[in-house]
Amino acid sequence: MPLKFRTKQLNIDNGLAVTGSLTVVGGITGSLFGTSSWANNGITASYVETAQTASYVNTLNQNVTILGNLTVAGSSSSLYVLDVNGPLLVSGTANLYGSVIISGSLTVTDTITELSTRRIKDNINPITHQLSNVLKLNPVHYTMKTTGQEQYGLLSEEVKEIYPEFVHNEGINYSKMVSVLIASIKELKMIIDNQQKQIELLRME
Predict the structure, then answer these.
(1) Residues facing residue 71 across a β-bridge
(2) What span, in angstroms and rounded, lies between the C-alpha atoms of 20 and 5?
(3) Which residues contact 80 (CB under 8 A, 6 or more apart)?
(4) Tell me: the pLDDT tens digits for 127-178?
(5) How far apart are CA 126 and CA 67, in angstroms?
(6) β-strands 34-40, 22-24: how paired?
(7) Which has the closest alpha carbon to 26: 42, 48, 14?
(8) Nearest to 28 by CA among 12, 5, 48
(9) Which of 54, 94, 136, 183 could form a disulfide with 130 if both were Cys (CB 3.0 to 4.6 A apart)?
């Protein structure tokens, strides 16, 4: 016979072990350990959580609020490990290992940084002779079919022909392109300096 609690709030200090299903009408604050499913207001979502890593799956059109840290570890066998159709609020740190696909806009109120320290890299060599490749890039102005918004950028098909390492799943890694743009500016500066020296020599004759 199922055990039901008809109270507004149930506080558990030392843990609760459930063999079977657990239905909660309301919210859950704290940690859930194990592999099972829980239902909230008739909406079922599944979770897999350990003491330090949580893989949370919610494929329905519901909001997800996580009080604490969120760590998502993807796997090759699943297309989506974290799939939220609605707002996702994480009060803490969200650690995402793998690819993140966002269909829409991403708004960040702080800074997005990429780990780029020397200690994680081998075979470090300077980038040279990139000006000719950069000049092949074709900046375009276009309208997004899905939103109608006018934007500026590049076409991944064209970039792939020049820098295939900057294209992944039809997307362009614009931040990585900064390195070749800087190298091109330096190369162009050297050309200008050499031309300026030749002009000065001609003036001295």
Answers:
(1) 95
(2) 16
(3) 57, 59
(4) 999 999 999 999 999 999 988 999 999 999 999 999 999 998 899 999 999 9
(5) 45
(6) parallel
(7) 42
(8) 12
(9) 183
> Would you state the structure tokens that stand for residue 157, as one six-digit string?
């098909």
From first to last of its 205 residues, the chain has per-residue pLDDT tens of 555 555 555 666 666 666 665 555 555 555 555 444 444 444 444 444 433 344 444 444 445 555 555 555 555 455 555 666 666 666 667 777 766 777 777 777 778 888 899 999 999 999 999 999 999 999 999 999 988 999 999 999 999 999 999 998 899 999 999 999 999 999 999 999 999 999 999 998 8
Tell me which residue of 80, 85, 119, 111 sits closest to 96, measured CA to CA.
80
C-alpha angle 83-53-88 in degrees, rounded to nearest 5: 35
pTM for the whole structure = 0.57
Q: Which two tokens stand for residue 104?
A: 């829409």
- φ, ψ of residue 153 to 5 degrees: the values are 175, -155
**CA 128 → CA 137, 167, 186, 194, distances in Å?**
17, 20, 9, 17
State how far Cα 127 lies from the chain centre. Answer: 26
